[in-house]
Amino acid sequence: MEARPLAVEGAIEFTPRVFPDARGQFLSPYQEEAFTRAHGSPLFPVAQTNHSVSRQGVVRGVHYTLTPPGTAKYVYCARGSALDIVVDIRVGSPTFGRCDSVLMDQQHHRASYIPVGFGHAFVALEDDTVMSYMLSDSYVPANELALDFLDPALNLPLPSGVEPVLSDRDRAAPTLEEARERGLLPEYDHCLRIEKSRHSGS
After folding, report:
1. In the annotation, is 63 catalytic?
2. Stretch 93-107: mean pLDDT, rounded?
3. d(CA 28, CA 43)
4. What's the CATH superfamily of 2-200?
5. Does the annotation count 76 as an active-site position?
6. Which of 76, 118, 142, 152 stands 20 to 30 A from 85 (CA)?
């Protein structure tokens, strides 16, 4: 498995080796040894897995978790294709406000690791796109927040020809600056402490 650091500090793209034969393909989207080498910690603590199905053009995000408790994600596209996007919204981070993206499809089978305190979104590029997530903490609706995907300050990539389909909640989400003014964004140092503690198991 190959690992590539993304342009936002702490986020990582993973590309597994694919084994094709007459029956189809076999691959392993998550491998602890590769994760440990790339991230520096011995494990990704899984508290919950999620599964979403989206039609073409659906945008889910930008979502993030109140910190604390904070949640890290490992995301993989099990069917179809999507542009997966990570945004560093940790106040005080050297890459605050920057984003990067990973094209997830059924050719390269890439996955991405999204650290505690990051915003996450994806754009489904075809119908019946299935996204699979591993979460480091259980989902608590009251802790889940969102930012405006179309905020010009974020300048998130939207593939040409895609008319974004967003939920009412995501359409009403605040901009990055509005969330910062309201004290809703995570603090960089706090996120690092949570991430280190959770991965070490302490």
Report:
1. yes
2. 97
3. 16
4. Jelly Rolls (2.60.120.10)
5. no
6. 142
